[in-house]
Amino acid sequence: MALETGNRQDLGEQATSWIKNQTSVFATTDKVLGKDGNERECLVGIATFHTFQQNPVLYHCYLHPFYRGKGLMERVWREVHARYPRFELEPPLSPAMSRFLSKVDHSHVLSST
Length: 113
Known about the structure:
The chain has helices at residues 2-5, 15-20, 72-83, 95-103; strands spanning 24-33, 39-50, 57-63, 87-89, 109-110. The protein is α/β, with parallel strands linked by helices. The protein has a five-stranded mixed beta sheet with strand order 1-2-3-4-5, covered by helices on one side. The longest helix is centred in the last third of the chain and has 12 residues, at 72-83. The chain starts with a helix and ends with a strand. 12% of the residues are buried.
């Protein structure tokens, strides 16, 4: 994310910051072939939400470039919308996220200004 937006977004490693910010995470996994020849589930993407105030905020969203364009993010987007009917986006948006938003219904996304 930092490479794509030039902005680093760090979360504290202590559970207290996750609890305070009411953090929730949507993980995207896929089967990958390991060096040993066995398949295993691997984390390929993540969407992190905080609820600082009234509206949840999509704070961090990332899908590994090798997995983009395969419909994985659209599936997550539907799951996110089901859980959060209205939410805000934390800027800055990467070019990849901007392209994604141009392809999907994002009428439920609130202005963060």
